[in-house]
């Protein structure tokens, strides 16, 4: 099965491994991610602060490309890109004048029928059908994860159909359960990590990250799992900084959901490039493998 794929800027830069993992993991599950041609930045948070029309037109152009390439669904792993694209489509479908204005400026016209899916929305049918569980060949018994969704995956600036519980989403928990992994419940699953404010307001961002880390540790977690490239980058790359500032002695790996699924499917940590994380992240996997060898 082929699905249109929009990686966005983060997955082609700081979170390049997420891009590679997504393509590889879904291929192993029988889904081919077809990157749309000549895509552009979705505008993320910056376009909306500059010009509302531009904030809609930028992701709308990508929708038009995917629709004109014959796709009826597009997967967008990045939470910010997913949010901007889903909101843009809803705005266009609710405003015929806006839709005509945007179509007048782009070559590949928008119909508005494209299904915009997060990475979890593509995983979950495989959970419900039993396909994911059937293809999982590796047990990761040592993992005690908390699922960190971040603040953008279920909260939107416009009225859209939210595919999960806004304050207590369960999509990642369902994926992990299908793999034999029980996620730990906690309070910070939809908290903000500070996003790009880590650059221009580091104190505030480090405080937010430390709060998230403290709650994960208080619950007994030994790792975090996320779908958001910004959340993964901040919680991983700034971990030494926020832990030192707030006197936190423990460190936790911060995995992408694709890494957990990929390992459960039998892929190695080196194949998934997990050793490129800033915080050491392979030891926990190796410990899980050693535990499995004893069984």
Largest sheet: 4 strands, parallel
β-strand amount? 5-15%
β-strand number = 7
Low-pLDDT sequence parts: none
Mean pLDDT: 93
Tell me what you see in this structure.
The protein has helices spanning 16-28, 46-50, 52-68, 79-94, 96-105, 119-129, 131-135, 171-178, 197-200, 202-218, 229-237, 239-245, 257-264, 283-294, and strands spanning 2-5, 32-35, 73-75, 115-117, 145-148, 223-226, 254-256. The protein is α/β, with parallel strands linked by helices and 295 residues long. The protein has two domains: 2-117, Up-down Bundle (Glutathione S-transferase Yfyf (Class Pi), Chain A, domain 2); 137-294, Rossmann fold. The chain has a four-stranded parallel sheet with strand order 2-1-3-4. α3 (52-68) crosses α4 and α4 crosses α5. The longest helix has 17 residues, at 52-68. It is globular and about 55 Å long. The two termini are 37 Å apart. 48% of the residues are buried.
């Amino acid at each position: 099965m082929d699905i249109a794929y929009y990686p966005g800027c983060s997955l082609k830069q700081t979170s390049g491994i997420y891009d590679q993992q997504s393509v590889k993991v879904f291929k192993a599950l029988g889904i081919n991610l077809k990157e749309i041609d000549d895509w552009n930045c979705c505008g993320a948070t910056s376009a909306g602060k500059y010009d509302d029309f531009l904030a809609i037109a930028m992701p709308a152009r990508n929708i038009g490309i995917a629709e004109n390439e014959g796709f009826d669904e597009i997967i967008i792993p990045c939470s910010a890109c997913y949010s901007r694209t889903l909101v843009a489509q809803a705005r266009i479908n609710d405003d015929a004048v806006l839709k005509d204005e945007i179509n007048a400026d782009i070559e590949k016209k928008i119909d508005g029928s494209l299904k915009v899916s997060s990475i979890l929305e593509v995983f979950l049918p495989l959970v419900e059908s039993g396909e994911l569980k059937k293809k999982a060949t590796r047990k990761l018994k040592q993992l005690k994860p908390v699922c960190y969704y971040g603040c953008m995956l279920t909260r939107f600036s416009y009225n859209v159909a939210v595919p999960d519980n806004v304050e207590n989403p369960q999509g990642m928990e369902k994926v992990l359960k299908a793999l034999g992994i029980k996620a730990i419940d906690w309070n910070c699953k939809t908290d903000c990590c500070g996003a790009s404010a880590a650059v221009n307001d580091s104190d505030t961002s480090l405080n937010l990250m430390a709060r998230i880390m403290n709650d994960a540790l208080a619950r007994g977690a030994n790792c975090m799992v996320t779908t958001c490239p910004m959340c993964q980058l901040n919680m991983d790359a700034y971990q030494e900084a926020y832990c030192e500032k707030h006197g936190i002695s423990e460190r936790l790996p911060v995995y992408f959901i694709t890494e957990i699924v990929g390992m459960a499917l039998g892929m190695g940590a080196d194949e998934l490039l997990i050793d490129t994380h800033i915080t050491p992240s392979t030891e926990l996997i190796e410990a899980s493998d050693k535990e499995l060898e004893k069984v």
